[in-house]
Structure formats: C-alpha cells, structure tokens
Design brief:
By secondary structure, the chain is mostly helical. The protein is about 60% helix and about 0% strand. The radius of gyration is 12 Å and the shape is elongated.
C-alpha cells in the first residue's frame, strides 16, 4: 500500500489531536492551551484536515 506524504501528515496530526484531547480531559491542558497547540500542530504538519474537536477520536 502506498500512502502519500499528505496522508501521513494528516494521520500524524489527527493522532496528536487525540492525544491532546486526552490530556485536556485529564486536566493537564485548558481549552485555550488546547486550541493553541492544535493550531501550531496543524501548521507544523501542514494538515489539510478540517476538525471538530468535540467529535474526534474514539475515546
């Protein structure tokens, strides 16, 4: 299976957002910090995903 670099970047970004949501639920990140880190990560990965943080991840 050949996976494009863009798909890899989007997958890594999605995984990071899921991990950040877990940290937020545990109380380690507040909403402002969570949004800031997600913004930085999306720029860093060059992600083209449109995310709704409330509907992400399977946890």
């Amino acid at each position: 299976m050949i996976i494009s670099e863009k798909a890899k970047s989007n997958s890594a970004f999605y995984y990071e957002v899921c991990m950040l949501k877990i940290l937020s639920a545990m109380g380690y990140l507040n909403e402002k910090d969570l949004n800031g880190i997600i913004k930085i990560a999306s720029e860093d990965y060059g992600a083209s995903l449109i995310l709704d943080k409330t509907l992400l991840c399977l946890n």
